[in-house]
């Protein structure tokens, strides 16, 4: 009976958010500025006569999602300019017992408390971190975005073939024509850069480069990772450590689960939980070929987390991810450390590709060079976010964005994988709370 009550509770809050919350949020920014009451306050205040504002409102919304069991653990970090102004952590990252599973029928389970520096799996929020390595190389003149990939990686394609026309820009904007490769789910090969490179070399084009857009779930990482290795002779995880993470003070962020860092051989990464989609008329679709439960089971495996997958296996705390975006928002510099030139940052965060959704249903494809762009509906960064917003999402569990209009850089990561719509709604509500209360 406890399980049924919990399930009903989760469905109730998600239904309320989906039906009423998003509609209320559409006018929430204006309401915050005018002091007008809106339809979402009932979710934020135990006392309806007391309306929380500013940081307290953000914290209460963050905690509300935890209390309702939308996920077991989460972090939210926000930079305004170069200052970390929100740094929240709540819930648990795992259970105390080594073989004890995360409970699915308890909104507030016992376990290891989430700390601000706890590491989470970042999924596709790894892609901008990998793209940053290419940004550094372009800024240093080691490559150009319009270079054919074969100029730096001769084995990538046969000479004079259509595949040889794929450019670095095509890869960063998901227009390479290579959305799939033979090694995408060959997890045993993920720690072998040579095997990954061979998989890309064997992959066949699905369309002419630059003529269409198809999201590169895994291939983005394989191509970018080997491109960096071909240009620098370094693995991308090492290059990212030296040229992105260390300069920005991102000491606990990695591409791939790192080697043990204490005498017990322990690496703390939050345990993922896949939640079943709540009731709806239509069937929930797969995400990158996984159900939510399959994704959690797969990416809880240490051997998968250790894979050199620059599109998926980033791990780190949210506060460092927000700092990464704050650097881009500040023109490539933060706290006196310059990672990129202002000109390069302006180019990569600009809009390069925009395509409407197929059949008019879904979200338009809007890409910078390694970033997703906001402004289209539905948008987990707001309802919708301003068109100049750039960031990324991660498999039903995380969201990042940076916004020149508000000077805010935001990262939100949970250990609860949810169906795309459910994740979009919870992220949009939290994004809009941040935007309305901090601007």
Key phrases:
7-stranded antiparallel beta sheet, 14 helices, globular, 2 domains, 439 residues, disordered N terminus, alpha+beta, 15% strand, 3-stranded antiparallel beta sheet
Topology:
Layout: H1 2-26, H2 28-34, H3 41-44, H4 55-67, E1 73-80, E2 83-94, E3 112-113, E4 120-123, H5 127-139, H6 168-172, H7 193-202, H8 219-232, H9 236-248, E5 254-255, E6 273-274, H10 292-299, H11 302-305, E7 314-316, H12 318-329, E8 333-334, E9 337-338, H13 342-349, E10 353-355, E11 365-367, E12 372-373, E13 390-394, E14 398-403, E15 408-414, E16 416-417, H14 420-438
Parallel strand pairs: 6-16
Antiparallel strand pairs: 1-2, 1-15, 2-3, 4-7, 5-7, 8-9, 10-11, 12-13, 13-14, 14-15
The outline comes out as: globular
Distance, first to last CA: 44 Å
Q: Give the class from helix and strand content and strand pairing.
A: alpha+beta
CA gyration radius, whole angstroms: 21 Å
Q: What helical percentage do the residues reach? A: 25-40%
Biggest sheet, spatial arrangement of strands = 3-2-1-15-14-13-12
Please work out how many helical segments DSSP would assign.
14
Give the quaternary arrangement of the chains.
Answer: single chain
How many domains make up the coordinates?
2
SSE ordering: HHHHEEEEHHHHHEEHHEHEEHEEEEEEEH
Indicate the mean pLDDT: 85
Largest sheet, strands/sense/barrel: 7 strands, antiparallel
Uncertain runs are 1-45
> Strand percentage, roughly?
5-15%
Number of DSSP strand runs: 16
